[in-house]
Structure formats: structure tokens, C-alpha cells
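Ticket 4471: requesting a sanity check on a complex prediction with arginine. Repro inputs:
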Amino acid sequence: PVISRLQYEAPAYAIDQVTLEFDLDPERTRVKSRMQVRRMPGAAPTAPLLLDGEDITLQSLLLDGKPYVYAQTDGGIRLDKLPETFALEIVTACSPRGNTRLSGLYMSGDAFFTQCEAEGFRRITYWPDRPDVMSRFTVVLRADKSIYPVLLSNGNLRSQRPLDDGRLEAVWEDPFPKPSYLFALVAARLVCREQRIRSRAGREHLLQVYVREGDLDKTDHAMQSLMASVAWDEQRFGLSLDLDRFMIVAVSDFNMGAMENKGLNIFNTKYVLANPATATDADYQHIESVVGHEYFHNWTGNRITCRDWFQLSLKEGLTVFRDQEFSQDLAAQSGGESARAVKRIEDVRTLRAVQFPEDAGPMAHPVRPDSYVAIDNFYTPTVYEKGAEVVRMMQTLVGRAGFAKGMQLYFSRHDGQAVTCDDFLAAMADANPGSALDTHRQQFGLWYAQAGTPRLRAQGRFDAASRTYTLTLTQACQPTPGQGEKQAQVVPVRMGLVGRDGAALAFRAGDRTGRGPEALLVLTQPEQSFVLHEVDADPIPSLLRGFSAPVILDDGLGDADRLILLAHDTDPFNRWEAAQRLALSRLLPAVCEGDLKVDAAYLDALRAVLRDPALDPAFKELVLTLPSEGYIAEQLGEIDPPRIHQTHQAMRLALAQQLQADWEQLWHTLAPNRGYSPDFADAGRRGLRNLALTHLCLLGDAQWQGRAYQRVKDADNMTDRFDALAALVGSRAQLAEAALQRFAAQFAHEPLVMDKWFALQAGAPGAEIEAIRALMRHADFSLRNPNRARSVISTFCQGNPGAFHRADGAGYAFWAEQVRALDAINPQVAARLARAMDRWRKLAPPYAQSAEPVMRELAAHPGLSADTREILGKALA
Ligand code: ARG
Ligand code: ZN
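Returned C-alpha cells:
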């Protein structure tokens, strides 16, 4: 059934308090729930109480101590003719061992874990499983002490004692009312790293990171990140930790990245475990941002939660924005202001790589969706990353201080409540009366309501006589499924002017009194002209600085203008953007017409960047990294993935050849002078140096490939070791096979490292399906472990377009087979993989033609989950 946003009805009953007792057993766990229920003021006395339940067995139900008749519903039970307040006791049983969906209570190895967001709690007990029902939870856990010596749940440990039968009993109490999706428990053999901290407010807290024995030496970075998160939220937003104890637990079988359960965050091991020998710089970065993200949810998500799942971006968009700001601030501590820009560029690259295609395809949906079949399908780049851009635009419109005021008002109005995206926007606007956000608040709300990426077109005219520059901006947005007509949105355009000599040109914008180097234009009409005054020379406009809005910009500039911006713009984002556009304007004609021209002007510009001592290595690396194949595909009317891949490779080879002397120079000058640190500066040097090695290997030069092999053997950190291995595999070096074998032998017992090893091969240029099948026959491959399944199958189907799309359609047949196999085990993971074919209609012949029958046959398979069915249905509609 399709759930619609406008169908929302407030719950008729509140459950003020609940005590859950778990007798944990892998085959059959018994759950006794005792609830204090109260009819909501205003609800009809006849209103039924609806309880969700899925894959659980009801054993008894008592109302005020007596058996009570209930009715079965689709997906739960219903109680009628209820008193105004009552005690409800329900006993159920479930099978954690049989729970391969990893939603609800499940086993990972020999241990119990839970994942309740969005609708996993109903797989544990009968409950009104919706985020606007908030309760105080007391949790009693009982389990065999010899196998599960650690028993954890949300909040504070009230007591723990051994029972006569060899079991351990722990009682946990969470002082804060919370929705069921934030419930969690863990029963396992674990060890933990502990840290006591004192908050700015003077309160003491215990921080813990729990992992399996043997992984303790990989917890330092997660703990450092957690401490930094606590300090940052206090400093930037005045938000302190509200619990005595805050726990992170790592689990190796997990559908997503991590989960913000109150006081007991549960993480995919991938986002906790790191030491220099096993984790790359990118892993360190991800851990920092995910630890921050989940911690920041404690206020934006847990203290104030979502009224219903359509409001998911209320917590996710805001929390992604917060984790992005956190990472920027931390990067700036070690790398200065340019580190901020590097982080911003990386975030925009992700947005364009994953969200823009989504917004242009069959799954396009507003940041606040209007309907869904399976809510798990809507944990998307649109809700997360575009949602974060919407929050960022608010900050741009009201300023940093205004944004902080808005946050304060949001908390003073809504702490402890389940609210909507509109409530957040209202708090921001109300806290900043007279701001552009306040003035245009209604129209700004379209960012939540309209799907699709708006396209901006800019045209400028300089008038020397009046010293004015008139910038005309137009906006339009293509129709998306269910939304034929689009209205103009509020688009903040940060901009400056650059002279032909590269110098910044000052100007006076509209009503502003002073002359300055930059302005914020707020576009609200389909077409609007802005007159800039006191402009001394014909300028090149530098528009959308810092990517001030998630739009596609047609700036109408030519190569010459872009070369100037690349060399001189004071805005680092737009310098990088100029390089991307210069690359695109060479790549796109080559994809269409076949002849790639890499001209001297472009090469000289890149060389100048590489040689500029004032530029950050991390920034140089970004400038020298071509737009991804996926992003190139989005620029084209018809997609021929192998052709895009060949062109992309040809361009990389050209850069390798033409800049060879510079790559060699970089390799030598960037040699490290001390041991490994994952900080911004060191990681940036490593990244650029390894990019140099990658290019040098591409040349096929035996000497450089030999050097790479040497590094696979004796690098002192995983970044250098893995980048060298990737350089060998990516250049199809003869030594690649031997290097892969060496690497596998060395890291056979490190699952996260082996995930990289699997992924590297599944993503290798020219990977054949038989090679993918061979990886799946590896003794360490398992379809049941999401990380491992993704490392091979998703990497091939979603991360290797040049090899996956084949004229014979064999890639599609493989994809369909794996979606079916995964769907029977874990629909959430299968539905993600199903999205590999989102853009099939844009594929050039013969790809689209061979994809369609395969997709139709898969969609017709009767046993398919609602999750996967929803994705395929939209793709084929
Ligand atoms: N709230 C989690 C996070 O963003 C993600 C949970 C996703 N769960 C799901 N079933 N899709 O940090
Ligand atoms: Zn989140």
C-alpha cells in the first residue's frame, strides 16, 4: 500500500511509560512489554489503539491484568472499546537467528543487536511504531552470562546481577521519552575503550566505544572523534550532552552506516574501526563525520524528532549539514581556511554524483516526499544531501549568527516534541525577522516540496558609460514524476566579479551602500535582472560561489574566462569548478564525436595549479581529478557507459603523459618526513602524491609500476599501500595479480580490509562477469554480510559502469540474479542494488533495449519484497 503525507493523523493514544523484559535466546527470544496507555485529549472515546507487529508471535495480551480481545489487522492488531487509561501487557516471541533482514532484533555472529529505524521495532514487539509516540523506556535484559557478558540498552544502567540459572540480568532506564525507532539493545562479548570527560557546563560524562576483542587497537580515532563532537556541539550551538553515559557499539553486519539510538549508537564497523595499518585517510574522514553525525542526532533527531517519516529530512538534512560543518571546522584547525573549501568541494562532488542523478531519474522525490511504499527506500541522497543543502541555504540567507539564533528558537519551541520540516523553517524565519528567508519563507518552502534540480542561466552585460554590470538570471526546473509544473524557487547566489587580469573587481550591489568584492543575490522570479554599480572594467562573473544553491548553472562563459577563473578566482570552490568545466568541455565532445583534444592552454593551466606553492595539496588533487563518469553521463542526452569510460581513461592517460614531469616532481617533493598522521595536511600530501603515482603507473612504465609494487609490500600505512595496489589494478599492470595476492595473504583476517580488496577487483577496468563470480566463490564471500555483498555486487553494478553495461546484456542478467538472491535475504540491501538501473531509459542502444526485458522479468517475480518492487515499479513506469 502507498502511504501519503496528507493522510497524517495524530495518534489517539499516548504510551507514557513502558517496561520491556527480554529473555534473550538466538532461536526464540521472549519479550514482555508492560505499557501505561492514555487516550489523548481530543481523541474520540471510541478510537481504537493500533499496534504494529511483524514476524513476531503473540503469546498473551492482558489489559489491566485481564485477557482482552483484539482484532488482527494488516500488519498488526487493533484494540477497541478502551478505557481512558489502562495498563497493557503483551508477551511475544521472535527469532533473532532467523532475522536475515537485519531489521529488529538480530544476530551478528554470536551476539544480539537491534536496528529499529525506521520500522524495526514492530519486529520486536507490538507497538504503535511511529515516531510521534514518545515513551519513557525501562529495559530488563537477561541472557547467558558466558556468551553475552555485556548487556546494553539506552540511558543509564540501573542495576546488574547474576541470576541463579547462569544468566546475567541488567536493568537500563532511559530518562528521556523517545520514539520506538530510537530503542536499542546489545548483548555480546565485547570490550570497550573508555574516556571520562567534563562538559563546559561542568557535568561529567562517560564515553565508551565497544568492539570485539582484538579490535581495541582500532578505537582511538572513533573516541577522539566523539570527544571532538561533544566539544563542537557545545561550542558552535551551545548543545551539551544530556546523558551521563554515551556508548558507541560496532557491529559487522549492518544495513546502513550507523544509528543514533539514544545513548547507544550502533555503528557499522566500517565507521568505527581504524588504525594506520588497516584504514585509509578516507576511512579516517568518514569515521569522524559519521561519529559526529550520530552524536549530533542526539539533539537534532532525538530531543526533537520527526512527526512522521515524510519529515525525515528534518533530522537527516539538518544533521548532515551539522556533520559537514563539524568536519569543515576540524579540517580548518589543521589545514586553515583552504581546508574548509576542500571539504565543501568534496561534499558538492558527492551531491552531484549521487543526488543530481536521483533528481533527474524515476526515483526523483522532494526533500519532504509525498508518498512511499517502503520508507527504507527514502533514506536517499535527496533527503540527506539535498536536505543538507536546503539547511545550508537558510544559513546563507540569515548568516551564521542568525542561523544560531534560529536553532535556539527551534529548541526553545520544540524540545521534546515530534515536529515537521515546516516547523524548522518557521523557527529559522521567525528568529530572523526581515531577513530574505523571512520575507520569502513561503516560497523557500518549495525546496521541501518540489523535486528536481533547478537550472539557472546567467547572462551579463557591462556598460562602461554607466559603470554598471547587469546580470540576468533565469531559472527553470524539469518535470519530475508526479510534478509536471514547477514554480520558481528562492535561489541564493553568492557572487563576485573578476577582471580580465585576474584581479577581483569591487562593486556595489543594488541597495547596499558600500562597495565590496562579493554580493549575495537572491533570485526569486523565473527571470530577474540585478544591476551592479561602480564596476570599473568588463568583468567575468564568478557565480554561485561556494555552491550557494543546489542547482545546475549555465554561466555562459567560454574557455578563456574559465582559464582566468581557474588561475585567479578568490573563491576556491569556483576555481575548482572552472577546472571541472574545462575538463567537461573537452570530455563531452570527445564522448560524442570520438576525438579527444587535450590542448596546451588547458594543460598549462593545470600545470600552473600543480606548481603553485601557495595552493594546498588536497586542493590540487581535487583540481586534477576529472569529473566522475557518472557526472559526465548526466550531462548527456543519451548514455553510452563504455564510451564514457574509454574517453575518461583516454583523458587520464593524456594527463599522465602530458604532465609526466610534474607527476614525477610531485612524487619526490611530497615524500613524507615523519610518521603517519591522518590529519588534513598529511592526508592531502599523501593524496596528491598517490595521484601522481596513479598517473605514472597509467603510463605503463615498468619502473613506476615496480615502485608501486614495492609500496604494496612495505608501505607503513594503508593509504599508501592501498593506493599503490589500486594504481597497479587500475593500470592493468602485470604486477597487479601478484600484488593482490600478497595483500590478501597479509589481511585475510581483517574483514574491512578484505572488503576493499574485493571492491577494488569488482571495480577494476574491464572486469568480466566471470571474475565477479569468482570473487563470489571466494571462501570469505557472503551474501548475508551487507558490507561484503556491497563490496562485490554493488561495486560492480553501480561503481563500474564501463564494465557493467555490455552490449550482450550479461551485466543486467547478473544484476537481476543478485537482486533476487539478496531480496530473499534482505530487502533493504536488495532494493538499494535495484537502483543500479534507475537511469536505464537514458542508455544508448543497445543497452536500454537489452535492459528492459530483464527488468520486466525481475519485476514480475512474485516473491519480490515491497521494497524492491517499489524501486522497479518506478523505474519501469
Ligand atoms: N538514522 C540513521 C542515520 O542517518 C540511518 C538509519 C537508516 N535506517 C534505515 N532503515 N534506512 O544516521
Ligand atoms: Zn542521520
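Notes from triage: The mean pLDDT is 98. Leaving this open until the requester confirms.
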